[in-house]
Amino acid sequence: MIRIEGQSILTAAEMRAAEDAVIAGGVTVEALMDRAGTAIAHAVRRLAGTNEVLILCGPGNNGGDGYVAARVLAEMGVAVRVAALSEPRTSAAKSARAGWSGPIETLAEAKPAPILVDALFGTGLTRSLDAEPTPTPSSSPADAGAQLNSKGSPDGLLWAPASAGERSVVGRLHALASAAHLSIAIDLPSGFATDSEEALSTPPVFDLTLALGAVKPAHLLQPAARYCGQIRLLDIGVPSASQAEVLRAPSLPSPGPDSHKYTRGMVAVIAGTMSGASDLAALAAMRAGAGYVTLLGDSEGSPHALVRAPFSAQALANDRIGALVIGPGLGRDDVAKARLEAALDSGHPLIIDGDALRLIEPKRIKALKVPVILTPHAGEFDALFGKSDGDKITRARDAATRANAVVVFKGADTVIAAPDGRVRIAQGSSDWLSTAGTGDVLAGAIGAMLAARLDPLDAACAGVWLHGDAARRLGRAFIADDLAEALRSARAAL
After folding, report:
1. CA-based radius of gyration for the chain
2. How many domains in the chain?
3. Contact 335, 431 (CB under 8 A)
4. Torsion-angle region of residue 67: left (phi > 0), alpha (psi -120 to 50) or beta?
5. Measured between alpha carbons, how far is 391 from 377 in angstroms, rounded to an integer?
6. Contact at 8 Å (CB) between 326 and 340?
7. What pLDDT tens digit does each residue of the chain (494 aa) get?
8. Which of 212, 245, 278 is the last residue of a domain?
9. What CATH number has the domain bearing residue 214?
10. Is residue 159 part of a domain?
């Protein structure tokens, strides 16, 4: 089992293409399924110990992986049972089913086990499982499938509910998962689209999801990601290069004997009507490692290391400024608009956040000749780029292209996109970040990274990672001031 930091993210179509390339090279579908099922079995064996395992197998290749895993677990001496949703419908899954010599229960008749493995539906699902036919129980999967097919069911579902609360595949899955000590989903929890956060159905929250071959968008995008639990990758011998990757910890240099405050990077933060927001951004830039931070505008207080100065064209003309942060607490009045225009004309690399995102258009950003990083939350994103039903990755990519800027589309599933198509997605962030000022802290942290002369995408990624790690270190019930201070520990740990 492989941790997913830095791993490629593939859509369903990209994963199929990668598998097809392997098959074109002489590996059969059955051999790929055997690799996947064997990898699943070894992972489950490590976790199951002496406990009994129940594997739920669907009609497609995800179910075929389950049959292989059951066979290999049995060969290793693990007590394993199989419950099927229907007879297999693909040739590879049929072959895997033939390799399982044990009994097969129907989903309705399956008794719980300490370890539950969901191999019902993985990638490629396009429909809800919330309202499937419920035939009467049958003595065998084949008999039940025949009975259902005679009634015109397109899926040949095998289970009948024991109660009114279990009238769907998802209902039965909930019942079995709630009785298990450990629940494991294969590739994806059954009920989610692969390429987006869309919940086609609402499965139980799993303890662990084993991604086959590559990480998929739904492993990281919310709300789908919250149902996956911990995510680990299983290598099945399929190359998975992609422009999209899971965010990893940055590699940041430490100061050397020749370093001074300017070589470490100077950040300027423009204050506005709400000076506390710009204070937070400035403090965050300092704690994230900037050598010199100046706050331009009406503001006072600690820390004393922060240089405070009136906003002026002369202050902006300092050619030592490596990154200029504008937007936190800026306001939207005429003064704010004038300060934004001055920032855009300054020639400095920019982090544009908060109110500034409401005062600008993509074409204005695209016309700039300096590196730009935009840090919108969902509302700001919609205001700047328009609303859309597209998935978050596609929307972030399109926005980055339109503005010719790195876009940090914030949220519980922060997506970072560059104009050249590269994308990085952060793993689930702390729910306690949902408090005022944490976005200002992020803008300051990214400012410190950009001032240190990192590539704009790398700067955005480093800031997001530090921000998330600081939140994890704080645990529960923190405020933005705590978060800014905790950036010191996050940076020091690298």
Report:
1. 26
2. 2
3. no
4. alpha
5. 15
6. yes
7. 999 999 999 999 999 999 999 999 999 999 999 999 999 999 999 999 999 999 999 999 999 999 999 999 999 999 999 999 889 999 999 999 999 999 999 988 899 999 999 999 866 555 555 544 333 344 344 443 333 232 223 333 333 334 434 457 888 999 999 999 999 999 999 888 788 777 677 889 999 999 999 999 999 999 889 999 999 999 999 998 899 999 999 999 889 999 999 999 999 999 999 999 999 999 999 999 999 999 999 777 778 899 999 999 999 999 999 999 999 999 999 999 999 999 999 999 999 999 999 999 999 999 999 999 999 999 999 999 999 989 999 999 999 999 999 999 999 999 999 999 999 999 988 999 999 999 999 999 999 999 999 999 999 999 999 999 999 999 999 999 999 999 999 999 99
8. 245
9. 3.40.50.10260
10. yes
Which residue is associated with the tokens 């044990």?
Answer: 102
C-alpha to C-alpha distance for 144 and 439, rounded to whole angstroms = 55
Whether the bond into 223 is cis, omega within 30 of 0: yes
**DSSP code at position 62:** H
Hey, is 231 helix, strand or coil?
strand
Q: Do 233 and 300 reside in the same domain of the chain?
A: no
Which amino acid, one-letter code, is at 348? H
Quick one: residue 477, left, alpha or beta (phi over 0 = left, psi -120 to 50 = alpha)?
left
Same domain, 52 and 117: yes
202 is a domain residue: yes
| CATH number of the domain encompassing residue 285 | 3.40.1190.20
In a shared domain, residues 104 and 160: yes
**Where do runs of H (alpha helix) occur along 181-289?**
275-287
Residues in the chain, how many?
494
Is position 73 within any domain? yes
Same domain, 170 and 62: yes
Are residues 234 and 86 both part of a single domain? Answer: yes
Cα 233–chain centre separation: 14
Structure tokens belonging to residue 470: 């600081």
Do 241 and 286 belong to one domain? no
Do residues 147 and 284 share a domain? no
User: Is the CB of residue 239 less than 8 Å from the CB of residue 32?
Assistant: no
Closest CA to 38 of 265, 270, 212: 212
Q: 329 and 238, same structural domain?
A: no
Any idea which residue has 């700067």 for tokens? 459
Residue with token string 């207080």: 301
Answer yes or no: is 259 within a domain: no
Q: Print the domain residue range for 87.
A: 12-245
Residue 89 tokens read as 């419908």
- Locate tokens 């505008």: which residue? 297
State residue 186 phi and psi, 5-degree precision: -95, 120
Amino acid identity at 11:
T
Listed residue (217, 212, 256, 262) closest to 237, CA to CA: 212
